[in-house]
Design goal:
Number of helices: 11
Order of helices and strands: HHHHEEHEHEHHEHEHEHEEEEE
Number of strands: 12
CATH architecture of the largest domain: Alpha-Beta Barrel
CATH topology of the largest domain: TIM Barrel
Number of domains: 2
Strand content: 15-25%
Largest sheet: 9 strands, mixed
């Protein structure tokens, strides 16, 4: 795969509801009927959901369709490698109370909900999302907020999940207001795929819930330029016009975005919709995700090529979450070596030492 498809799949009749089974996905024309049983096997282990918005973007005539690859279950998900981990980034070892992950001194993750509108087949929390305990109880949420209130070194709260925008706007607005009322919390960040996967949820009620006096940033998960269809573009526009600063989060995925032209198109599309690329994540070691994983060297080469193809506005930080809960590490290419610096074309130039 070297080119970004020019347009989404042709129009066809799709059920106006989320696809949650092999039968649903086959009935929507996205897979052949003989694949239903295989999808059922995967669904017995991991949650399945494809929203109508994303289903409409899948081209069933393309065996390598990058949208289908991200969301249609694959039997390879049941092939766990010895190096893969149920908790690949060490959330559990840094969770002092349910719903809180406190890995860095000045910020915490708060996961009020572990439901998503769509389930990515490479998700690093795939062992947890969609289960019976996927929503924090009122008591657990009280304890989580109290933990943040009691730790004055917490400067930033990151709402993640699942997808925090799955909360009803009134409940989300109440939670945001409670966090904003804590004096030492200066920044609230929300990680969400909803502007891309279920953009109709970005309505006036949701925008009202997101309006705060304190700084609120929204990080949008998007992995391919074709995910930004007309509906997603509309949701991103509503968010930016409401004054909410937008960041982009992308996962490096084999067969989806690991070609320079494809990554370039994605970064340009994000910036054109006022989304600043923030992180390019190396894929975490979640079970059954090896068929999505590239090498770090591949990612570094991709970043080198991106450096010469697009402006600084389009450059994400290439990072890896160290297994075991040790935090993120920047793993981008290095341009300095032996007193020389490389330019965007790979040419080496001497640079004088200080003093």
């Amino acid at each position: 795969m070297t080119d970004v498809p020019a347009s989404p799949a042709p129009d066809r009749d799709l059920r106006p509801r989320t696809l949650r089974s092999g039968e649903d996905i086959a009935a929507a024309g996205l897979v052949a009927a003989e694949k239903v049983a295989a999808i059922a096997q995967v669904a017995g282990r991991y949650a399945v959901a494809i929203t109508p918005t994303l289903a409409h973007l899948i081209d069933p005539t393309d065996a390598a369709d990058p949208i289908a690859r991200q969301f249609v279950p694959d039997l390879r998900e049941l092939e766990a490698r010895p190096t893969e981990l149920a908790d690949p980034i060490g959330d559990d070892s840094h969770s002092p109370t349910r719903g809180i992950v406190h890995r860095y001194p000045d910020r915490v993750l708060l996961t009020p909900i572990l439901h998503c509108p769509v389930y990515c087949r490479f998700c690093f929390r795939r062992e947890k999302v969609g289960g019976d305990l996927a929503v924090l109880s009122n008591e657990d949420l009280e304890r989580a907020v109290a933990y943040i209130r009691d730790h004055a070194d917490i400067w930033e709260v990151v709402l993640t999940g699942g997808d925090p925008l799955m909360l009803p706007p009134a409940r989300l607005g109440d939670l945001l207001a409670r966090l904003a009322a804590i004096d030492h919390v200066a920044v609230i960040r929300i990680h969400s795929r909803i502007p891309i996967s279920d953009p109709g949820r970005i309505d006036e009620a949701m925008l009202a819930a997101l309006r705060l006096d304190k700084a609120l940033w929204l990080a949008v998960h998007c992995n391919h330029a074709r995910e930004i269809g007309a509906d997603a573009a509309g949701a991103l526009g509503r968010l930016s016009r409401a004054g909410i600063p937008l960041l982009g989060q992308t996962v490096l995925l084999k067969g989806v975005n690991d070609e320079p032209a494809v990554m370039e198109a994605l970064m340009r599309a994000l910036v054109a919709h006022r989304v600043k690329p923030y992180y390019l994540h190396h894929l975490d070691l979640a079970p059954g995700t090896d068929h999505f994983r590239t090498s770090i060297a591949r990612g570094q080469d991709l970043m080198r090529q991106l450096h010469g193809r697009v402006s600084g506005l389009c450059q994400p930080h290439y990072v890896l979450d160290i297994p075991g809960g040790y935090g993120k590490a920047p793993i981008g290419p290095v341009y300095l070596a032996d007193g020389a610096v490389e330019d965007w074309q790979g040419q080496s130039h001497r640079y004088p030492p200080a003093g």
